[in-house]
Please model this.
Amino acid sequence: MPEIIGEYIDRQVNIEMVDDNYPRRGKTWPLYEAAREKLGAPLTYLAAKGLIENVKQGDYVILLSGAGISPWLEWGETDGPTGIASLARAVSFGLGAAPVYVGNEKELGPVIAAGMAAGVSVLNREAIDVYKRKATALKVPFPLGEKGAKQKALEILDEYQPKAVIGVEKHAPNPLGVWHTAAGQAIPGDTQPHVHHIVDEARERGIFTIGIGDGGNEIGYGLIRDEVNEIYKAQFGGVTCKCGCGGGESTATATDVLVSTAISNWGAYGVSAMLAYMLGNPFILQDADTERRMVEAMAMAGAVAAGIGTGGTLPWVDGTSPVMQEAVVTILQEIVTNGVRRLHPGGFPAVEGVTKSDVS
Ligand SMILES: [Zn+2]
Model:
């Protein structure tokens, strides 16, 4: 049954509805199919299953976000923070774990704001370890550039001993060390926190890792690097990126599970929805009212929208409206709520002639 639910949640979060001239147009489903073929089961299902198997009460889970590019996306963009916030809520409310937000300090602002709107506070470690505060996250700023990044990554893993590491819309370089936008242009590496070292080292240590992305240039797509580069080659007229580096659009950083999706936030919502379903509690996934609070909090904290409203601190995500964010959550909530509801004779909903054996 979880695989059936996961199948439709995967589809729900892979409906492409970007602007006509958006660089990712037409790539959502080919990227999804490549990831699905590689992993052999619904992606949101595999992600939730791995979290349930690996994360226990009191454990730390590292959440990586931030698709900003200094100096013009100083506070980050709107795809990423609410996905992180949803996962923070899900691992807190569902598994009793403590999220650790790691990223560029300025970009952590919208993440924290969205997380608080989702019901997760940010305190210090003493509050969690000593006072056992629930629904509480930590924030760990990560420096920009490669210098010292690997050492910092090792220190973070040593300090928190996380049981899972998740990237949402988190860019990473290709095997040549070149970073790319979804449009195939190069991004200066010194504008980015090199948190992919946390993922690479976590995999060395056998820690469960998830990459959630929508373009191929984010943490996780190293799992299907050749396939991503082929998909881009078809679009870019025979080259795998537009900067001329020759290393391709896809990142080198692979994860145990890759959730390829239409919009990264939605992929994260899909994982939260699967956690809610598999743990039997729809409350673990934010509802539509909470989603509205989350996207508004994120935008008010400085995250800017890509697509429609580019550059504006608006609660739009990759060209889709605030109402659309609520709509996606509404559909996911309905899938989860109906998925855990048992019909019984004489009970709600009273459908004449329907018995439990007909629906279970
Ligand atoms: Zn390149």
